[in-house]
Amino acid sequence: MERIGFAGLGTMGAAMAANLARAGFPLTVWNRTPGRAGPLLELGATEAESPAALAAESDVVVVCVSDSPDVEQVLFGENGIGETIRPGSVVIDCSTISPTVTWNAAQRLAERQVQLVDAPVSGGSEGAQKATLTIFVGGEPAAVDRARPILEALGKTITHLGPSGSGQAAKAVNQVILAGTYLGVAEGIVLALKSGLDVEQVVAALGGGAAQSWVLANRSGRMSANEYPLGFKTALHRKDLAIALELAAEVGAALPIAALCAQIESSLIARGHGDDDMSGVARTIRELSAVAE
């Protein structure tokens, strides 16, 4: 069985690494901020002191960090994975980053005879905990085939979409669609509140029709209560929208709804709500509609 190294034990990464440990993979973990590995050590994992030390003990390294610069630092920075990873190894990047950065990283790793699979995920913290994530995959077919048993321990829907960067481009599409869905559900919930309707009753009715969505079923209650406990950080979705809008500019796609959502999220972040769940876009719609707390 492949020895797995896992770099990045945030909200998503810690849960994903735990699922790999439960699946029986020999697991070594590393996190930039110490103190996150305790529960994984109880599951049998060992902890490395640096990405380089992690890679030295691994056949496949999974990376799950926040942004493009973080991925580049973990891979190619001082004491990075690139310093010790052996030829024939595979890196699986589950971060959400720029497709261009992914492609460039794949070229640099190929010089070391290492293959990169980009495998950004969707499904939030719930999906990470339950191993039900949707995973968008890019990379060479042989590398993807090798990565698949690992990805199957993390998610339910695994789709190989093409060469390096394809997974990241598909994740950008996902985040654009989510932007519109969250805003649409927020507006609908606020309209129901302003109209004096029973929101739970309305949501139950909508669940049987064309307006049904995961966001409606799982986030409308938060929007109605105006409480936004963490599922997926607003700041991270805003970062993802920046990637999508940059890609749109490169390929000539107009994304007016995504641009509006980005503005709303930027305002929320400036007001201290960046760590709230992204369903907090409803906070702005409620305020614009003078809906009382």
Overview of this protein structure:
The chain is α/β, with parallel strands linked by helices. The chain has helices at 11-22, 38-42, 51-56, 68-76, 99-110, 124-130, 141-152, 166-194, 199-206, 214-225, 234-251, 256-270, 281-288, and strands at 4-7, 27-30, 46-47, 60-63, 90-93, 115-118, 121-122, 133-138, 155-162. It starts with a strand and ends in a 5-residue tail after the last helix. The strands form 2 sheets. The protein has a 6-stranded parallel beta sheet, sandwiched between helices. It has a 3-stranded mixed beta sheet with strand order 7-8-9. The radius of gyration is 20 Å and the shape is elongated. 49% of the residues are buried. It has 13 helices and 9 strands. Helix 1 (11-22) packs parallel to helix 6, helix 9 runs antiparallel to helix 10 (214-225) and helix 11 runs antiparallel to helix 12 (256-270).
Topology:
Elements lengths: L3 E4 L3 H12 L4 E4 L7 H5 L3 E2 L3 H6 L3 E4 L4 H9 L13 E4 L5 H12 L4 E4 L2 E2 L1 H7 L2 E6 L2 H12 L2 E8 L3 H29 L4 H8 L7 H12 L8 H18 L4 H15 L10 H8 L5
